Amino acid sequence: MFRKKAVFTFLQAQVAAFLGGITDYGLMILLTEVFKLHFTFSILISGTVGAIINFSINRFWVFKNQSGYSSPINSQLFKFALVMLGSITLKSSGTLILQKVFQIDYRIGRLITDLFVSYGFNFPLIKYWVFKVNEKQNVIESN
């Protein structure tokens, strides 16, 4: 039962990340290609919009039964903002490094960087820090 719920939560979180990510990526391309912003600035703007979408889906759908309504939104927003600030910094830096050092097109470099940042940074921090299940609630759910 626990594994099934954990896998379902992980898959839901991936849907939230995908929807936020596709918005983020599409907006980055638009801002860079059409509005001619440098991709690092585009990532900053698009990452913020994607983060708002991601947070909303995570709070109201993915983690709502675990901690979404039991934790104050201000606390979650603050923590989420810190995670997203780190995420955007890692994505911008990683994309820039891949483009400058390895001559990888920024669009491809961004996808590569996103894979590492999403699974190695964002998901663990969002699940275990931003929307952390408190011990009392965990005991209630397992009974």
TrEMBL record:
Query: From its record, what is one biological process in GO terms?
Result: polysaccharide biosynthetic process
Assigned keywords, A-Z: Membrane, Transmembrane, Transmembrane helix
**Which membrane topology describes this protein?**
Multi-pass membrane protein
Q: Which residues cross the membrane?
A: 6-27, 39-57
Give a yes or no for keyword Protein biosynthesis in this entry: no
- List the Pfam families: GtrA_DPMS_TM (PF04138)
The reply on keyword Repeat is: no
- This protein's superkingdom? Bacteria
Q: Name one GO cellular component term.
A: membrane
The cross-references to InterPro entries, in alphabetical order and at most eight, read: GtrA_DPMS_TM
Q: What is its main location?
A: membrane
What range(s) does the GtrA/DPMS transmembrane domain occupy? Answer: 18-131
Subcellular location(s) of the protein: Membrane
What protein does this entry describe? Polysaccharide biosynthesis protein GtrA
Q: Which organism is it from?
A: Flavobacterium reichenbachii
